[in-house]
Design brief:
Blueprint lengths: L1 H43 L2 H18 L10 H20 L7 H5 L8 H19 L3 H12 L4 H8 L3 H22 L1
Length: 186
C-alpha cells in the first residue's frame, strides 16, 4: 500500500507539469500553424501534402521543444529551420519517385466555383507554378518564407543563414525575374 501512495503522489506532481506543457504547445500550434502551413504549401503546392508535412513539423517541435535555446535564436527562426529541413527532406525523398499527385486533381473540383472559375484559377496557378519552376532552390525558399510564411527579411536571413541585405536583394531580383517570366508567358 505505501508504494501505491508514492506513485499516486508522484503522478499528482506530474499532472500540472503535463498540463503546462500542453497549454504551451497549444499556444505554439495556434500561433504558428497558419504561417508554417502557408510556407509548406508555397513549397510543395499540394494541400494534403502540406497538411501532412505541417503535422510532421509540429510533431518534431513537440519532441524537440526541450532542445530549444532562446540564446541561440528566436523561437520563430528555430521553428522555421525545422520546417525548412522537413520540406527539404520531403523533396529529397521524392527525387527517385515520379507520379501524378492526386491533390492537383482534387483541387480542380469545387462545389462553390463555376467551371469557368476553376479553369481560370487553374491557368493562373499553372502559370505561377511554371514561373516559380525557373527559380533556384534558394530563391524558392525565400519566396515561400516571405509570402507563404509571412516572415520579415530579418527573420528569413536568420533561417537561411544570409544577411538581411542579401535576402532583400535576392527577393527583389527574384520578383523581377518572376514578373519577366509571367509577362513572357503571356
Amino acid at each position: 500500500m505505501p508504494k501505491l501512495a508514492l506513485i499516486d503522489a508522484q503522478s499528482k506532481r506530474e499532472i500540472p507539469e503535463l498540463l503546462d506543457m500542453e497549454k504551451e504547445f497549444t499556444y505554439i500550434f495556434e500561433t504558428y500553424y497558419k504561417k508554417v502551413f502557408n510556407f509548406v504549401y508555397y513549397r510543395v503546392n499540394q494541400y494534403y501534402t502540406a497538411e501532412d508535412l505541417t503535422s510532421q513539423i509540429f510533431e518534431k517541435v513537440m519532441i524537440k521543444i526541450n532542445t530549444y535555446d532562446e540564446t541561440k535564436s528566436p523561437f520563430e527562426v528555430w521553428l522555421f529551420a525545422i520546417a525548412r529541413n522537413t520540406v527539404n527532406d520531403y523533396f529529397r525523398n521524392l527525387q527517385n519517385r515520379k507520379f501524378l499527385p492526386i491533390d492537383s486533381i482534387k483541387n480542380l473540383i469545387s462545389k462553390k466555383k463555376t467551371p469557368e472559375d476553376i479553369v481560370e484559377i487553374a491557368e493562373t496557378n499553372d502559370e505561377l507554378l511554371k514561373a516559380l519552376s525557373i527559380l533556384g532552390e534558394r530563391e524558392r525558399s525565400i519566396v515561400a518564407l516571405k509570402f507563404g510564411a509571412g516572415l520579415k527579411n530579418v527573420e528569413i536571413s536568420k533561417v537561411l543563414g544570409l544577411t538581411e541585405n542579401n535576402v532583400g536583394v535576392i527577393l527583389f531580383r527574384t520578383m523581377k525575374k518572376l514578373k519577366k517570366e509571367l509577362e513572357r508567358m503571356g
